[in-house]
Sequence to fold (329 residues):
Amino acid sequence: METVLSGIRSTGNLHLGNYFGAVQNFLKMQQEYNCYFFVADYHSLTTHPKPDNLHNNVKQVFAEYLAAGIDPELATLYIQSDVPEIPELYLLLNMNSYIGELERTTTFKDKVRKQPENVNAGLLTYPVLMAADILIHRAHKVPVGKDQEQNLEMTRKFAKRFNHMYGVEYFHMPDPFNFGKELVKVPGLDGTGKMGKSDGNGIYLAEEPASIRKKVMSAVTDSGPVKPNQEMTEPVKNLFYLLELMSEKSTLDHFRNAYNTCTIRYGDLKKQLAEDIIKFTDPLRTRINEIYNDEVYLSKVVKMGEEKARASASQTLKDVRKIMGFKSF
Ligand code: ADP
Ligand code: TRP
Fold:
């Protein structure tokens, strides 16, 4: 069975965009592939070095993914820093990656612009750590967004270089993975663009109903259609897209019809949309809180993930050390 691997950033709660764009695919993948999903807490240190929230962020991510339906029996769900084989492989791969190519990486140049006061070496070698994450389980497929494509390309480069350097066919080339036919892009509530955590235009899985209502009611619209079947403006199109995602077909038809006959009241649409979102998020929020507070369950799941991940990782590391010429006395 092919291996799928994905790293999860631990710096932000899951919003509806993450859920429909990524998590839902994870739920399908875990049925069909040998899946490794992990929280990339070492990576988060390159941008969030303070200890204050490190543990709680990891805990929150774990609770959210479990609540959303990741099954720790089916998939291997673990924390990057629980697997010491990853930093060891990272060290070994570092000897075989060049400053020049790392400096040219877009994600690095981006961070240099964004945090000029903290251009740490971890940022420079971020793609090497990511390669170690992937190669440690010799993953076949990696679901990544557009912004991570170059980093995956670097992994392929490091893997190829390793094989060439030591005259082996040990690592295969991991492929980017698009699950499903079309990419879902969940729009935000601010009229344009996609839902994201940075712009405050997102609705979170763990969000309280009152807060969801407030956000949806203040979503951007326009002054309303003036002629039948008028082309929709982007903010209105976005609201209808959300309705399509969250509501019953009859609700969608009702508001479409109201729009096309110029009788629509956006306030009614938003009220309905807010309730339908809450219907979806409410059980999730309850479950997230339950899991977050269940230390016994969480520690059991974390330990199980650690054991499964290390079993696979230690085999790879053993092979790599041998290939590179390490021998024990
Ligand atoms: P964020 O916008 O919260 O920073 P990330 O960039 O960390 O999201 O993305 C995590 C995953 O969620 C990626 O697979 C990304 O493609 C997906 N994702 C994020 N926002 C959306 C969205 N609005 N619609 C669909 N998928 C999304
Ligand atoms: N860099 C990825 C991101 O920012 C997270 C990540 C770390 C990752 N290691 C990975 C993704 C390995 C896929 C495979 O989203």
About this structure: The radius of gyration is 23 Å. Residues 209-289 form a domain with the Tyrosyl-Transfer RNA Synthetase fold (CATH 1.10.240.10). The mean pLDDT is 95.
